[in-house]
User: Fold this.
Amino acid sequence: MSGGRTLTLLKWTHVLAMPLCAAALLVGGQRDARADDTQLSIYFVGCAAPTGFHGYLARGAEEAGKNLGVKVTYIYPDELTIPNQVEKIEEAIAAKANGIALCEFAQDSAYTEVAATAKAAGIAFGSAAAPPAGAQIRDPNDIFLFRTGSDEKAAGTLSGKRLIAMGVKGRVVVDDQQPGDATCRDRAESEIATLKAAGINADFLEASMDPGQEAEAVGNYLRKNPDTAAATSVCNISAGLLSAKADSGRSDLIVTGFDLDAQALDAVRDGRQAFTIDQQQFWRGYMPVLLLTHYLKYGLVEANYFLTGPTIVDKSNIEQVGKLVTAGYR
Assistant:
């Protein structure tokens, strides 16, 4: 079992604001979930500690546990790799969880074997990540009971179409901070294809989750390609990209991104960032717990994949959305 410590969740305002050292988090309600007085146990295997973006997923899982009267345990690998995450799934199986929700970040093939192990143990297994691009009806042979997330190729297309509608002229750089993440690659490839289909030059740029390294990579690109009109950050809030924009003196550079946090809200409010693509990440934590609970209690299986996004957040709706982000629900 990889390193991990347990924390009882008390105040999520602190969880969202401060980093945690813990690698496991116990949340949930007090009333029994089944007629036999045995409380359901659901493990949420996350991709990272419950801070920032992943804090919203964990908060969603927590609230679902409270509302449904099930015990939810949030665990995550100290370092996000496929073997480490699979080890955490195996930890949940060994704990005899009734259900497991997974923050899937790799291709399905990485989880096929452990999904079969969970099924053999009688454990319901669902994905808190993007469904197959363009798919709405669940495949009955899917290794996951459900998938809850944004259609990421549709998200990339939406981002590209919005840039086209804004009248972007010149080159667009699509900045991927996690080249090994299938979600980010889907966003990037789809946006680039949409832009190129409209006759706009678009390039893929491998960067880093480290804002300083990202700023350097984007800054170098801008110097080599002075005709660049827009830049999209596909895998993270664009701290490094915004720094590169400021450092290069390119106040005219259109910056776009994905997901929401306080920094993205401020950047959209003050115009440094044109828009962000939201996947309503709170739902990505809440809905897997609800779907697992309803399957385990009532045998219900959703016929559709549950799409939490994509939606656009820009100056037209930033104030309404901002209140929900501050409260920990967007």
In short: The chain has eleven helices and 14 strands. The chain has two domains: 6-150+280-309, 167-273.
